[in-house]
Write a structure and sequence with these properties.
The chain is α/β, with parallel strands linked by helices. The termini are far apart. Helix 3 crosses helix 6. It is built from eight helices and six strands. The chain has a four-stranded parallel β-sheet with strand order 5-2-1-6. A two-stranded antiparallel ribbon has the order 3-4. Helix content is about 40%, strand content about 15%.
């Protein structure tokens, strides 16, 4: 066992599970830092590397993907109101036992499963799915037991943010003006109350 694995404070058995079944010869160890990354965009890049689609030797019937180490899973971001509006649902098999858990609760319980589910749902449903899942190692923090491996940090492509549409821009300007007017009204009412109090004291 390596010194990095010995110093790892997390669940070492879970982190190293199924590693013997992977042929590590010739594989690269790619590191993804999930801190501040959007969940869907990060998962799409991970699924590409796990399948080996970034290699010129890619074939759909071969598992040529690289090892993917994802760190800082607890700091992944989502857009919009998905943190409260997105739900994971599953059924226990008993009548009426449809369970659900929001993304916010799942992040508090186990943030690694959020990224794992997002990546696995982007992979094709075939016999290579389990082998590709074993090559994905996700950790909530920044430490992992693979410190002795030759890592290659993965650089996420730049996100192209399109310009705001005119209708949305006008709505944003109206909302900002309305907020400013409300703030101005509250300050005016506070000043008026203070003046009334001063007049009463002077009288």
């Amino acid at each position: 066992m390596s010194t990095a694995a010995q110093s790892f404070s997390g669940n070492l058995k879970k982190a190293l599970a199924g590693l013997r079944r992977i042929d590590l010869e010739g594989l690269r160890w790619r590191v993804f830092d999930a801190k501040g990354q959007v969940l869907g965009r990060l998962a799409s890049q991970i699924s590409t590397v796990v399948q080996g689609k970034d290699k010129p030797t890619y074939a759909p019937n071969r598992d040529d993907g690289d090892m993917c180490i994802v760190i800082n899973a607890k700091d992944v971001c989502v857009t919009g109101r998905k943190m409260t509006d997105k739900f994971y649902r599953w059924h226990t098999g008993y009548i009426g036992h449809l369970k659900e858990r929001s993304l916010k609760d799942q992040m508090a319980k186990d943030p690694t499963q959020v990224i794992r589910k997002a990546v696995l749902r982007m992979l094709p449903r075939n016999k290579l799915r389990d082998d590709r899942d074993r090559k994905l190692r996700i950790f909530a923090g920044s430490e992992h037991p693979f410190g002795d491996r030759p890592f290659e940090p993965y650089v996420m492509p730049a996100r192209q943010v399109r310009e705001m549409r005119p209708r949305a821009r006008r709505a944003l300007i109206r909302a900002q003006k309305k907020a400013e007017e409300q703030a101005q009204e509250t300050t005016d009412t506070r000043k008026g109350k203070k003046r009334e109090k001063v007049d009463e004291v002077s009288a």
